[in-house]
Amino acid sequence: MLEQLLIFTRGGLILWTCKEIGNALKGSPIDTLIRSCLLEERSGAVSFNYDAPGAAYTLKWTFHNDLGLVFVAVYQRILHLLYVDDLLSMVKQSFSEVYDPKRMAYNDFDETFRQLRMEAEARAEELRKTKQVGKPVTGSVKKQGQVLKAGLEGGNKRVGEGGTKKDDGDGIKGKVSNLTNGHSNENHKMGDDSQEADRANGKENTSSNVAVDISKLQKLRSKGVRGRGGVRKADSIGNKSSKVAAAEPAKKATKKNRVWDDAAPKQSKLDFTDSVDDNGNNDHVEVVAADQGESMMDKEEVFSSDSESDDDDDDEPGSDEKPAEAKKKGWFSSVFQSITGKANLEKTDLGPALKALKERLMTKNVAEEIAEKLCESVEASLEGKKLSSFTRISSTVQAAMEDALVRILTPRRSIDILRDVHASKEQRKPYVVVFVGVNGVGKSTNLAKVAYWLQQHKVSVMMAACDTFRSGAVEQLRTHARRLQIPIFEKGYEKDPAVVAKEAIQEATRNGSDVVLVDTAGRMQDNEPLMRALSKLINLNQPDLVLFVGEALVGNDAVDQLSKFNQKLSDLSTSGNPRLIDGILLTKFDTIDDKVGAALSMVYISGSPVMFVGCGQSYTDLKKLNVKAIVKTLLK
Amino acid sequence: MDNWEDMKIVAEQWSKQGIEFVQQIPPPQLYAAIAVLLLATIWLFSVRLFRRTKSNTVLLSGLSGSGKTMLFYQLRDGSSHQGAVTSMEPNEGTFVLHYENIKKGKVRPVHLVDVPGHSRLRSKLEEYLPRAAAIVFVVDALEFLPNIRAVSEYLYDILTNASVVKNKVPVLLCCNKTDKITAHTKEFIRKQMEKEIEKLRGSRSAVSTADITNDFTLGIEGEVFSFSHCHNKVTVAEASGLTGEIDQVQAFIREHVKP
């Protein structure tokens, strides 16, 4: 049963709620929907889940962009109501007939709504009844796809059989898989497939015992191998699981030295750490005065304003991609429409413009699914809107996309780190920043840059070397610390990073440092034990800022990295309020010319703002993100 | 091309006739006519200039959830209808305030703008600030302390905005939701805001100018910040959007949008 159905304007005034269903909603699902979904440019999504103490709701919505109305339906998540989408569109239609901008109360709509609801419910009942009849048909079609996939993978022979084990196929399917298995052991496979076909036929006719026996035999055989085979099948796309499987037992035992086959026979441990204590003065490293000038964080961002003609020039080659005949018709009607300006934007009108825009975004290194979601969201916000006169569709779409991009890249909360540092200072505890990220993105280098910038603003910094795995990590930080003349807390290698961090924070509280910068080892987002170790570090020390370091060169993997990091951090957290990634540090920004899409992908998928941008390899190369410049570059 | 030549000839004839007619008018009349024309155009321009200096735009700003949309509808219609949710777009309207509908005589309509408070939509405020005649900054008196940092940062950004400082736009700090028992008093809120802004002043001026986009700094150097230091007038008032007790806000608006 529907919990509630609301109609409100985009300006926020509620126009109508269903009074029959008198339940008050627990929590504030509508506000949360607006804040975390509609304003975050995820309005292309299908539904939104909201959890409050005592209730779990799912929300569905639709817009009427022309009149500026939003229709939202709320229902309990455990009930899978099928008629909600239908009902919403019907309500939209009938309400837009009644709507009058001057009117604020629509009590007569109750009656209309009741009728609509009964209609929708009745229709859903019918659909459900017909669906139950047709289920077996659809079920087999789905499994056909599975068989094909199993055949194509060409993996373990037993895996193929294991996959088809559950099938109620028909003979045609067997023949199809015959054709696809042409590459692999033909004879062998042929035999199996004929058996398959026989078995399938057997099951259908429910007669021949021979087929059933063979199937049982195959079942027994495959069961033994299912464990390994199943896992391998699932991960045959990437080979990461085998690595994990190999790493797991190794990690459970103590960490053994990796022995290569052709290594020199005997080697003492490669630990060249100089035996120096914390205040050791190693004369090899000269103390370069840490005055390399003003950090670029404090410099004005100067960017040239490109002329408008660039946009128009780019539009021409883009439009050439469309097929010629459609272009002729489209051009004339669009010109006509742009002059009269009366057309309502339809999905078909927006389609080509959005497609071109998506392609353009993807050439700028925005992850594919992010570009897709963004385009869907822009489409949802423009559909049904009236074109103002003398504007082309493409320019309307461009303006809407620009608006959306600025909205996403603008931080949701203030990213004034210095203010937070001051606030922590008042409470007499150090401000802890943890740098996390995958291997090789530049954590240690950018940690030094941030330390330099903070030092320039008269904040006392302390580094904590919690990367106890990579050779030379501690020395690297030690060198930076010596050059910048800031204290460093280190415990050498092969220690538990969480404990090292804890002790570092205690040390900082003792000697009155304002900020503690914690460096961690790089880790892949799929590596379960390492992610567990990271979440242990974060849970134990409760840092003030978890900074995800990501490189601007990353492509579609950015989405995977960030979402998996956040997921692991929230799954493996012990407390009720898991600490997620609070900010992003974008590195290697100078290596990408205008392919700045990684910033957008990362911000969109994680919701956290970009706090710093690393644009070089010296201490001063740290900037703030210039939202307008990025948006301009993305849409150029 | 014959048509062209024909039309040219006709046009020449007409212009000749016109010039002859003008030359027939005695000079004083001609000069008088020109003078009247000139005066009329000058007068029109000056009237337009004068009218433009006093705008009637009042902005309703504040954090998300502080009650601006409810206030907007109270001011406009005298009732808050069925409630409001987080605004995604500004609410604008030019109207005579509801309580003044009863009054007789010419009352100047007010252009009221309710700007969404959500941080992602903060840029919309920048569009309206140059034209503002007065700003009502709505603060949630109920949930004041948990949000005090965000509130003070927002107010600081408004008070240091270039247009606000140059035009000396008056600001009313409106403490909303005072109908609830646990709401704070306006004095408490004022003191807390002054303290927070003092802290902000310290940290914001510690960084170099390019870091933060504030155009000006607030207050007098060396003294604890107080709202009386601002060049524009900042006053505090109480209101309740839900029950309709908005007299102080209405008085403020009327005071600064003179009829």
UniProtKB/TrEMBL annotation, chain A:
Keywords: Endoplasmic reticulum, GTP-binding, Membrane, Nucleotide-binding, Receptor
Membrane topology type: Peripheral membrane protein
Family, as annotated: Belongs to the GTP-binding SRP family.
Record's compositionally biased regions (Basic residues): 218-231
Residue spans of biased composition, Basic and acidic residues class: 155-173, 185-202, 258-272, 319-328
Compartment(s): Endoplasmic reticulum membrane
Annotated ranges, domain SRP54-type proteins GTP-binding: 609-622
Compositionally biased region (Acidic residues): 307-318
Pfam families with a match to the protein in the record: SRP-alpha_N (PF04086), SRP54 (PF00448), SRP54_N (PF02881)
The name this protein goes by in its record: Signal recognition particle receptor subunit alpha-like
Predominant location category: endoplasmic reticulum
From TrEMBL, chain B:
Record keywords, A-Z: Endoplasmic reticulum, ER-Golgi transport, Golgi apparatus, GTP-binding, Lipoprotein, Membrane, Myristate, Nucleotide-binding, Protein transport, Receptor, Transmembrane, Transmembrane helix, Transport
Membrane topology term: Single-pass membrane protein
Highest rank taxon of the organism: Eukaryota
TM regions (residue ranges): 30-50
Cell location: Endoplasmic reticulum membrane; Golgi apparatus
InterPro entries tied to this protein: P-loop_NTPase, Small_GTPase_ARF, SRP_receptor_beta_su
Family: Belongs to the small GTPase superfamily. Arf family.
Name the record gives this protein: Signal recognition particle receptor subunit beta
Organism of provenance: Camelina sativa
Gene that this sequence comes from: LOC104700782
